[in-house]
Amino acid sequence: MRRLFVALDLAIGVVEELLNIQEEFHAYLDANGDLPQTRMRWTHPENIHLTLKFLGDTDDALVSRLSDTISGLVKPLFPFEVETKGLGFFPAPELPRIFWCGFAPESAEVLALLQQAIERDLGELGFEPNERAFHPHITLGRVKSRANPNFAKFAQKYENKSFGKSYVKDFVLYESILTPKGPVYQVVERFTLGA
């Protein structure tokens, strides 16, 4: 069994902007005296991506069929651009668990359509659909402490800020390997759009 997910990688410039935001948030908490009681698990730079579909534990025998299905899905697609924009907390700033960066509305719309197509096609292989509505986002960190009103204030400062655009030319099938230091993501296969 392999723990798999389908994702999109982001442009290096976008990842750098998001790492800067992680540092700014850390400094913001420090300046407000909130750092001692705030516990965050930050997403490492090499793990920053957009998950389109988490597949979970997948039988090795199914991987080749999975590969064929994703190949068929990306064949009619052309490379496209997405814009990362805005910050927030899931499920809400008052009860933060995930610190995230979102996407501009037009990009979010395109990503939602892609995700629906992935759900449909992979559903035919027996993968369960996501129970929650898809909200395209990049996880920047996981909050491990109580809520803080300063979290919402920080996110509001950046609700309309663009963190750059990424040119998407492939989908990536990743394996998530759990380690004591956190997950390590390894590329299983890349699927070039239009190929």
UniProtKB/TrEMBL annotation:
Q: Which Gene3D superfamilies match?
A: Cyclic phosphodiesterase
Q: Which domain of life is it from?
A: Bacteria
Please verify whether the record's keywords include Ligase. Answer: no
Domain Phosphoesterase HXTX, first and last residues per copy: 35-100, 105-185
Q: Does the keyword Secreted apply?
A: no
Query: Motif HXTX 1: where?
Result: 49-52
What is any Pfam family matched here? LigT_PEase
Task: Give the enzyme's EC designation.
Answer: 3.1.4.58
InterPro entries for the chain: Cyclic_Pdiesterase (IPR009097), Phosphoesterase_HXTX (IPR014051), RNA_CPDase (IPR004175)
Active-site residues per Swiss-Prot or TrEMBL entry: H49, H137
Give the residue ranges of motif HXTX 2.
137-140
| Entry keyword set | Hydrolase
What stretch or stretches form a coiled coil here?
none
GO MF annotations for this entry? 2',3'-cyclic-nucleotide 3'-phosphodiesterase activity; RNA 2',3'-cyclic 3'-phosphodiesterase activity
Please give the catalytic activity noted in the UniProt record. Answer: a 3'-end 2',3'-cyclophospho-ribonucleotide-RNA + H2O = a 3'-end 2'-phospho-ribonucleotide-RNA + H(+)
Return the similarity comment. Answer: Belongs to the 2H phosphoesterase superfamily. ThpR family.
NCBIfam families attached here?
2_5_ligase
Q: What does this protein do?
A: Hydrolyzes RNA 2',3'-cyclic phosphodiester to an RNA 2'-phosphomonoester.
Q: What is the protein's name according to its record?
A: RNA 2',3'-cyclic phosphodiesterase
